[in-house]
UniProtKB/TrEMBL annotation:
Gene3D superfamilies: NAD(P)-binding Rossmann-like Domain, UDP-galactose 4-epimerase, domain 1
Protein's recorded name: dTDP-glucose 4,6-dehydratase
Gene Ontology MF annotations: dTDP-glucose 4,6-dehydratase activity
NAD(P)-binding domain boundaries: 4-298
EC number in record: 4.2.1.46
Catalytic activity: dTDP-alpha-D-glucose = dTDP-4-dehydro-6-deoxy-alpha-D-glucose + H2O
Enzyme class: lyase
PANTHER family: DTDP-D-GLUCOSE 4,6-DEHYDRATASE-RELATED (PTHR43000)
Family classification: Belongs to the NAD(P)-dependent epimerase/dehydratase family. dTDP-glucose dehydratase subfamily.
Lyase found in the keyword field: yes
Keywords in alphabetical order: Lyase, NAD
Cofactor needs: NAD(+)
NCBIfam families according to UniProt: dTDP_gluc_dehyt
Length: 335
């Protein structure tokens, strides 16, 4: 099988590529990645001689057409993925997440190629503490420019499946954690702050809830949908990992033997979604998927070890990322 993986130098895509090379020697992987600030070829070093890597933009229609003509399936991870960046400058999100997905859909339509679209639970907006978790029937109601552009791309995929018969599936996953995640994101940002002897930075009071899943569990689910998912259907991916941000910070502080209050409250994110939670019944019952990382605390401890042991991977990004947060106006709050 020939597989084209877009965004394969990013966090989830690179973990997907390494997992695929390790578990499925019959799959020939080509990565298409623009190597934006979020892409890092070093994340693919261990498999570099077993894959083909193409540096390019998913909105480059000629390139996408050429690569799609030579593949059996596309797994589409490439995106602008960080909410805070989408608040500072939404344009790249519109360009990559919407226009880029459109270019891929036109190409798979032309060549009759199987397509899997990797999306997020943020397309559903947020929940209060009393609401039931998101399911495949929850209406779309995105809050941020990031989630609005991901929702738009999902709607394009659904329309191309219905109107043009594209063999497309979608998955909407909750917050991922694990190795090779950019230091702009919540968990790696705090881990690397702690390695540097700095205080973790919690947005507002930290009562927001995210449904954490290990990146390997997400990627096993992507394979389950790719192999056994029904065309035109969406699958929600989550591992019952609901935890509020304050609790995550305290779990990390404990990993570093620091006091539970040794962190800063900083300026909150505008429009900050309160709670995400996933009901993954369809994925579990129809496709037989179960997560392997049952315990978030253990997965988090392994992730801390990975960042301690792989400083050379993240160090070049740290200072610039913290500088960007400062320039965006992040301030310590007197709470
Ligand atoms: P990431 O930001 O770490 O990686 C994105 C990758 O896409 C990078 O390698 C980047 O270079 C590449 N890219 C960006 N624009 C491109 C373009 N125009 N052409 C080609 N490549 C381009 O993102 P991630 O966290 O790995 O997320 C991957 C996918 O999973 C995204 O679609 C995201 O919406 C979705 N998702 C992420 C999470 C999460 O918790 N991180 C949860 C659910 C879904
Ligand atoms: O320094 C921080 N302090 C903090 O309290 C950062 C960076 C974040 N936060 C909070 C904001 C969120 O409530 O932590 C939570 C997680 O933040 P992010 O890592 O930015 O993730 P989120 O906005 O929830 O979105 C993530 O999950 C869904 C991914 O970035 C998306 O790509 C994915 O679709």
């Amino acid at each position: 099988m020939r597989l084209l993986v877009t965004g394969g130098a990013g966090f989830i895509g690179a973990n997907f590529v390494r997992q695929t090379v390790a578990d499925r020697p019959d799959v020939r992987v080509t990565v298409l990645d623009a190597l934006t600030y979020a892409g890092n070829r070093e994340s693919l070093d261990s498999v570099a001689d077993r894959i083909e890597f193409v540096k390019g933009d998913i909105a480059d229609t000629a390139l996408v057409d050429e690569l799609t003509a030579e593949t059996d399936a596309v797994v589409h991870f490439a995106a602008e993925s960080h909410n805070d960046n989408s608040l500072a400058d939404p344009w790249p999100f519109v360009q990559t997440n919407i226009v880029g997905t459109f270019a891929l859909l036109q190409a798979v339509r032309r060549h009759g190629v199987r397509f899997h679209h990797v999306s997020t639970d943020e397309v559903f907006g947020d929940l209060t503490s009393d609401d039931p978790p998101f399911s495949e029937l929850t209406p779309y109601n995105p809050s941020s420019p990031y989630s609005a552009t991901k929702a738009s791309s999902d709607l394009l995929v659904r329309a191309w499946a219905r109107s043009f018969g594209v063999r497309a599936t979608l998955s909407n996953c909750s917050n991922n954690y694990g190795p090779y995640q950019h230091v702009e994101k919540f968990i790696p940002r705090q881990i690397t702050n702690l390695i540097d002897g700095q205080r973790p930075r919690l947005y507002g009071a930290g009562h927001q809830i995210r449904d954490w899943i290990h990146v390997d569990d997400h990627n096993h689910a992507v394979w389950a949908v790719l192999e056994r998912g029904a065309a035109g259907r969406s699958y929600l991916i989550g591992a019952d990992g609901e935890t509020d941000n304050l609790t995550v910070i305290r779990m990390l502080l404990a990993e570093f033997d620091r006091s539970p209050d040794d962190f800063d409250h900083v300026t909150d994110r505008p429009g900050h979604d309160q709670r995400y939670a996933i009901d993954a019944t369809r994925l579990r019952t129809e496709l037989g998927w179960t997560p392997r990382y049952a315990n978030f605390r253990d997965g988090l401890a392994a992730t801390v070890r990975w960042y301690r042991e792989n400083e050379a991977w993240w160090r070049p990004y740290k200072e610039h990322t913290e500088d960007a947060y400062r320039k965006a106006g992040e301030r310590v709050l007197p709470l």
